[in-house]
Design a protein that fits this description.
The chain is α+β, with helices and mostly antiparallel strands. The protein has a 3-stranded mixed β-sheet, with helices on one face. α2 crosses α4 and α4 packs parallel to α7.
Length: 156
């Protein structure tokens, strides 16, 4: 169980103040407050050494406002620098998200999905938008508190 000591965030005069994106995002989805990533910022994320993207131009072309805010959050948090591709893929399986890893230049990389729906699930996952309920063990998506069905064979 996650226990926080001290103040996580404060809402003062119409502004949410916090020190840790990761901690506050565990309570409330704050990605909506990020500015939309520019095409150049999306390219920067997609060019990360831990990602493999077949068609970066296509990703930029289909990136809507929602996706652009999540790209901005991925860039701001540096999550791709913190977590290895294989760990991301393995953790995602718990939520029914199947991510492909590849070997490029003798290193594991995460294959960026080609389908827009899969792109959105990956961006949500990278921004820690999925979690397990502490009391029931049910799987949730933070933006809607919607229960995520486990992949078949993983039911408890």
């Amino acid at each position: 169980m996650k226990v926080w000591s001290g103040l996580v965030a404060a809402y003062v005069d119409g502004t949410l103040h916090f020190r840790s994106y990761r901690t506050v995002n565990g309570i409330v989805d704050v990605t909506e407050y990020f500015q939309e990533a520019t095409n150049e910022e999306i390219e920067q994320v997609l060019a990360h050494e831990r990602l493999a993207v077949d068609e970066a131009d296509k990703v930029i072309k289909v990136a809507d406002s929602w996706m652009r805010k999540r790209f901005s959050a991925v860039l701001a948090t540096g999550i791709l620098d913190q977590v290895r591709p294989r760990k991301i893929a393995n953790k995602a399986k718990r939520f029914g998200i199947i991510l492909e890893t590849r070997r490029v230049n003798n290193k594991d990389v995460l294959a960026f999905p080609a389908a827009k729906a899969d792109m959105k699930r990956l961006l949500t996952f990278l921004n820690e938008g999925f979690f397990e309920g502490e009391l029931t063990g049910r799987l949730f998506q933070t933006n809607s508190q919607r229960v995520v069905q486990p992949p078949s064979g993983d039911e408890q």
